[in-house]
Design a protein that fits this description.
By secondary structure, this protein is an alpha+beta fold. The protein has 5 helices and 5 strands. About 30% of the residues lie in helices and about 15% in strands.
């Protein structure tokens, strides 16, 4: 695993890659931050540079969709949820229940919520676009203030 740290308007982020793609993008200290990250060498590769550039463009309001190869490391269910997150368009929202329904598991909204919380690609795989069934903001591993900020950015209010 190789990684770099970048500064963003929402604080520092760690971006990591494995040989097969982007392993994760985490806000420093967020929930589910990889404890082993302290041991990963800080080396900027072409892929990590591309991720840094795309995240910078996103924060500047100039990028709506990321074009980075992802290297998922999760259960089959988690990966199916993360794949659904990628289908939520920029500036739009979905709910845990709606995602559960699209997976053919309408009673699995809690399990969807847990998988969303374990999404290792903050922003790149847009878990911030998922809300409760009535649109209320619920958990975000990076914190609700960051989630509000990201949603405001995507609605043009940031």
């Amino acid at each position: 695993m190789k990684c770099i740290e970048i500064d963003t308007p929402l604080g520092g982020m760690l971006i990591a890659e494995r040989d097969d793609g982007l392993a994760g993008c985490w806000f420093i200290g967020q929930r589910h931050f990889p404890a082993e990250a302290a041991q990963w060498p800080r080396i900027e590769t072409g892929m990590l540079a591309a991720a840094r550039e795309q995240l910078g463009a996103y924060f500047a309001g100039k990028l709506n969709d990321f074009d980075l190869p992802l290297a998922p490391n999760g259960t089959e269910f988690q990966q199916s949820v993360w794949e659904r997150l990628l289908s939520i368009p920029y500036g739009q929202r979905s709910s845990y229940g709606r995602i559960a329904e699209t997976l053919g598991k309408p009673s699995a909204s809690r399990a969807v919520g847990m998988a969303v919380g374990r999404n290792p690609w903050s922003i790149v795989v847009p878990c911030h676009r998922v809300t409760g069934s009535s649109g209320q903001l619920t958990g975000y591993a990076g914190g609700l203030d960051r989630k509000r900020w990201l949603l405001a950015l995507e609605s043009g209010k940031q």
